[in-house]
Design a protein that fits this description.
single chain; alpha+beta; seven-stranded antiparallel sheet; three-stranded antiparallel sheet; 12 strands; 22% strand
Length: 298
C-alpha cells in the first residue's frame, strides 16, 4: 500500500494557491451540494468529532496567522469568513460544508458497523475522482473498490487489517496518481480516466479506432491520501488532497523519461481502471521524444 507515518502537523496542508482553491470549493458547494456533502445517521457523532479536531484543535493551532477562535467564533483571516464552533448548536450539513470551505482536503468517514466492517457513512468532498459519493454511502471499503482489479484478493486484506490496527492519534499517508486526459477540471465525480463506463467522453479517434490524447489537456493527477483514527468514535478518516500538473511542465523540467518509466511499470491489471490502454503508448512515446509538441497519431 506504500503507507508511511506522518506527524499530525502534516495532516492538513496549506499552500500558495489556498485562496483560489477555496473559492473553487465554495462554487462547487453551491452548484453541486448533494455531490459534495452527505451523511448517514451512523456518522452523526463522527462528524462532530472531526469538526472539533479540524476547526478547533488543528487549524488555529497549526496555522495561527490564518485562523483563530474567539469565544465560539472561528475566523478565517484569508477568506474573511467566520463560522460557529459551538458544536452542540450546529447541524451536520453545516459542519460538513464548513470543513469543505476551510481546507482543501476531502474527507470520507469510514465508520465501523456492528460487525466491525468499515462503511462510508459521510463525506465532505469537493474534488472527487470517479467517486460519486451519494451512490457509495453505506457501502463497505470492498464494495466501493469493486472496479479496482486485484483489490479483493490483495489490497482488500491489507486495507482491512490496517484499519483495524490503527490507533487513535496515528496519522499515515500514501500517494496515488493517474493520467487525466480531458483538461484541468478537478471536480470529476464521473471521471473517464478511472475507467467508469458511465463517464462522459468526447475523444478524438483515429481512422483505426485509437483515441488521440490532446497533450494541452493532459495532466498528472496526484492524490495525497491520509488516514487517521478518531479517538472517540473509532471512525477512520480517509482524507484526499489533489494536485494537478500539466504533462508539458513535467517534460519541460526534464522529467518526461521518469514519468514514462513509471507508466510502463504500472501493473497490467490496472490498465482498465486507469485507462492505460488508451493513453499509455501515445503518452510515453511523446514523453521520451526529444522534440516538443503533439505526436501525430492519425
Amino acid at each position: 500500500m506504500g503507507i508511511s507515518k506522518i506527524h499530525r502537523n502534516d495532516w492538513i496542508e496549506i499552500d500558495w494557491n489556498y485562496l483560489q482553491r477555496i473559492k473553487q470549493r465554495k462554487v462547487l458547494l453551491n452548484t453541486h451540494r448533494d455531490l459534495c456533502i452527505g451523511w448517514n445517521e451512523p456518522a452523526r457523532l463522527a462528524i462532530r468529532e472531526l469538526y472539533e479536531e479540524v476547526m478547533i484543535n488543528q487549524l488555529p493551532k497549526r496555522f495561527p496567522q490564518m485562523f483563530s477562535i474567539r469565544q465560539s467564533e472561528f475566523s478565517n483571516h484569508v477568506t474573511g469568513c467566520q463560522y460557529s464552533v459551538n458544536i452542540d448548536d450546529l447541524g451536520e450539513d453545516y459542519m460538513l460544508a464548513t470543513l469543505a470551505e476551510n481546507v482543501e482536503e476531502d474527507f470520507y468517514f469510514m465508520c465501523p458497523d456492528a460487525n466491525g466492517e468499515y462503511r462510508l457513512q459521510a463525506y465532505s468532498s469537493c474534488i472527487p475522482q470517479g467517486l460519486l459519493s451519494p451512490s457509495k454511502i453505506g457501502l463497505s471499503v470492498r464494495e466501493i473498490h469493486q472496479p479496482v482489479l486485484g483489490y479483493e484478493n490483495r489490497l482488500g486484506n491489507g486495507v482491512d487489517k490496517h484499519f483495524t490496527r490503527m490507533k487513535a492519534g496515528d496519522f499515515v499517508a500514501r500517494l496515488n496518481w493517474s493520467i487525466q486526459t480531458d483538461g484541468d477540471e478537478l471536480f470529476k465525480p464521473l471521471a473517464k480516466n478511472t475507467g467508469d463506463p458511465d463517464a462522459p467522453s468526447t475523444p478524438l479517434i483515429t481512422s483505426d479506432g485509437r483515441e488521440i490524447i490532446d497533450l494541452a489537456k493532459t495532466y498528472l493527477r496526484c492524490e495525497r491520501h491520509t488516514l487517521t483514527c478518531l479517538p472517540k468514535t473509532r471512525t477512520i478518516m480517509f482524507c484526499v488532497r489533489t494536485y494537478l500538473t500539466p504533462i508539458q511542465h513535467i517534460k519541460d523540467e526534464g522529467n518526461g523519461g521518469a514519468l514514462a518509466d513509471a507508466c510502463d511499470s504500472m501493473p497490467e491489471k490496472f490498465d482498465v481502471y486507469k485507462r492505460k490502454s488508451v493513453w499509455g503508448n501515445q503518452l510515453c512515446e511523446w514523453l521520451r521524444a526529444d522534440h516538443q509538441g503533439k505526436v501525430d497519431w492519425v
